[in-house]
Specification:
By secondary structure, the protein is mainly alpha-helical. Helices cover 81% and strands 0% of the residues. The chain is built from 19 helices and no strands. Helix 12 packs antiparallel against helix 13. The longest helix is centred in the first third of the chain and has 40 residues.
Length: 443
């Protein structure tokens, strides 16, 4: 696949990055395909139950990572001799917190079920199987170690093997006409398999977990530094997952239909992260030496992301119903209209990821948290208003508006307003018209 070049960037490095992420894309495509197969088999109601449980437990589990990932990488790079202490302390911190969060997830569901006007069938065991993986995900700190050594390929290989094994298991469950609870149980198996794979890969590189140690002072230091990121991650998760939880008030079928549409719409959200990650080192370097070139590179990045996301949004807007019908048949009636609305969220997600990196580069982490919190608040308020009236379509509208407000929140802050204006110009293709006009004038 040939990735379009961006003026001012190292095209060879850009192409190399995307080749290295080919396996990651393979895993994403496999996950999407098996999700479609499972959705067709389970039908909207049961598929909605699974997605509700996933959303609820994901919101609670967001705290379990403790925001430690970036700090683990930084600390190991800064002092590699303390690797075992850093990893051991982080692991036990995460395991302890996730063991506490496990009953909290189940308790949150029981409260929701008790007070819900439309609770549906009890999903306690399904929620349990979705909550347990949080404990196994504590071992994701091994991923952070490999990142610190620029060896993420090992983790991607383990993840893709896990995706293949999970895919085979889910296809077997469909073939055996298995009940819903078994599909939830596979989620726990997936997490346990990935944790085991990470440990084995770590040992294969010549290291041992038994050399890890816990240091209380290190634990306090890590928590003191990472708790703002922990709350930020929780806010991002609420921002992205609260819709499925709130839509449960209408019923599991509504959640299933909406999840079918949102799953397709969000399937390619990893692409802007891949692009931004690949080009941002060059952007940061430009900031050190040439501010004008720094701003031009940001403009080029915003333009590229719009050129990718806008045509897709326009196409899906016209053919959303046909796409849903081809993929899901007649089972998910109404998902096409939701998809036609929700797909526009991708435009703002693409720009939001790029501007998020800008905020980190400039040291505006508080603004990054503020805009995420604003998006979450707007999403909740709009869902409270729109879900009773429009159901899943209302949730799609709420999500779209929340993403837009979160992305362009920086327009309200004087020191970041310029970047907001640059993104607006990219969105409305003003930069493109300026380039076309300039070329015409020089002829």
């Amino acid at each position: 696949m040939k990735i379009p070049a961006i003026k001012g960037f190292d095209e060879e490095a850009f192409q190399k990055y995307f080749k290295n992420t080919g396996w990651l894309m393979f895993g994403k495509v496999m996950s999407l395909l098996i999700t479609i197969i499972v959705a067709r088999y389970l039908k909207p109601k049961s598929f909605g139950d699974l997605n509700f449980a996933a959303a609820l437990t994901t919101i609670v589990a967001a705290i379990g990572a403790l925001g430690l990932d970036s700090f683990i990488i930084r600390e190991i790079i800064h002092d590699s001799s303390k690797k075992d202490e850093i990893l051991g302390t982080s692991l036990w911190l995460r395991i302890g917190v996730n063991l506490v969060l496990l009953p909290l997830s189940i308790g949150a569901y029981l409260l929701f079920h008790h007070f819900s006007r439309n609770p549906g069938n009890p999903l306690t065991w399904i929620v349990f199987f979705y909550a347990v993986p949080g404990v196994f995900k504590s071992f994701n700190i091994i991923d952070s170690y490999f990142q610190s050594q620029v060896q993420s390929k090992y983790v991607v290989h383990v993840q893709n093997i896990g995706v293949i094994v999970s895919t085979v298991m889910k296809i077997m469950l469909v073939w055996l006409n298995a009940p819903l609870i078994w599909f939830a149980a596979v989620i726990t198996f997936d997490a346990a398999f990935l944790a085991t794979g990470l440990v084995l890969m770590y040992h294969r590189q010549g290291f041992k977990l038994r050399t890890w140690s816990f240091n209380f002072d290190r634990a306090k230091m890590l928590l003191k530094q990472s708790y703002p990121l922990m709350f930020s991650a929780a806010m991002v998760t609420i921002y992205m997952k609260i819709d499925a939880v709130m839509l449960k008030s209408v019923g599991s079928t509504a959640v299933g239909i909406y999840s079918a549409a949102a799953g397709l719409s969000e399937a390619w959200f990893f692409i802007p992260m891949a692009i931004v990650t690949s080009v941002f080192p060059a952007i940061i370097n430009a900031r050190k030496t040439d501010v004008e070139r720094y701003n031009k590179r940001l403009i080029n990045l915003y333009d590229l992301l719009v050129y990718i996301s806008l045509p897709v949004a326009i196409f899906v807007s016209f053919f959303g119903s046909e796409i849903i019908h081809i993929i899901y048949g007649n089972q998910y009636e109404g998902a096409g209209q939701m998809l036609s609305i929700h797909i526009w969220s991708g435009v703002f997600v693409f720009l939001g990821i790029a501007s998020g990196q800008y905020l980190v580069t400039e040291g505006y982490t508080n603004i990054s948290f503020q805009r995420t919190a604003m998006g979450a608040l707007i999403n909740i308020l709009l869902n409270l208003w729109l879900i009773p009236v429009y159901g899943g379509i209302g949730t799609s509208i709420a999500t779209l508006i929340a993403y837009f407000i979160s992305t362009f929140y920086i327009l309200l802050i004087p020191k970041t307003r310029k970047q907001g204006i640059l993104m607006l110009k990219s969105l409305f293709l003003i930069h493109l018209f300026e380039k076309i006009t300039a070329r015409g004038a020089t002829r």
